[in-house]
Amino acid sequence: MTKFYTLAMMFTASFAFAQAGAPAPYYNGFDFTQTGTALKTALAQKITSTHTKTLSYDGAEQAIKIIDLDPADATNTNVLLLYGFSNSICPSSQADDNDHRRRSKNSDGGGATCEWNREHTYAKSLGTPDLGTSGPGADAHHLRAADVQRNGDRGSEKFTAGSGTSHDVTSSTWYPGDEWKGDVARMMMYMYLRYGNRCLPKNVGVGTPVASDANMIDLFLQWNAEDPVSQYEDNRNTYLGNANNQYGQGNRNPFIDNPYLATMIWGGPAAENRWPSLSTHEFNPLSAVAVYPNPASNHKINIDSDIVLDEIQLININGQIVQEIKNPASQSNTYTLENLPSGFYFLKLASQNQTATKKVIVN
Q1: Inside any domain, residue 224
Q2: The whole model's pTM is what?
Q3: Which runs of consecutive H residues, i.e. helices, occur in 83-167?
Q4: Residues 213 and 356 reside in one and the same domain
């Protein structure tokens, strides 16, 4: 979400941006030296194991009255509306009713005029299967307050690239708006890690699958980098991450805590790194490829890779190429090299102008 700074926001900055220096205690003991699939798996396990309180759909609506409050409103009476952009508040002319960016927190109810409703940012019908209104369908990390009509305009359309305020791009695609696209991206990433195949990013957005993960698309990585985290996102993440709060789930959205974690997992444009102590090396998706068994047995090794490999070379310690396979064939994302002579080797992998070298031993 684009950051809008006001005097009221400055007073609460020290609280809201507590994650801007180092990881929260929530991550104590977590191994941030991991990248790629290993980091993705570890974060998924973290946010799943700490999700200790499951909200009902009604409970999530009550949570929204707290977590979606406008940080710029010192009276704590208005919630921000996803996709909205007009700063006027109801009552107003009906012509721009569904453009509103904020509304009274007590105006929930789903009416057509001047009311908001809790809405699935990950359109529930795009889940596999439909997310419903329990479990993933009631996870407050992706439920937001939204104007009834504007969210109705979005319906179950897929997210796509655009600019300006929220609008239909085609009859089947939706741009969430410059202010909200980063929020959307980080929620889609959270839902993917938390619920796996039930919430695949490729099913809710239009874009190109990334090399290291066919389920993630470049659109969300771009939005995550272009639209930094706001105080609003920090506040809701902090509340939901505390299970002692009445509507706290116990788990956090790691991509709000640090958008750069997405870069470390999937690559793409470098997102904001909110933890200066975290390495900002350029991510090579081939570094996450697994080679096993190592040492090899039966003169055979397997290479597990979600990335399509363009070339495999097996090089001995004298620098001689023992095997070279261009455009190798895989079975269920596994490449197999057989009949290997015993020895110590360097296994060089290439894909899309990137390379990685692994050390292997063949007994």
Answers
A1: yes
A2: 0.78
A3: 148-154
A4: no
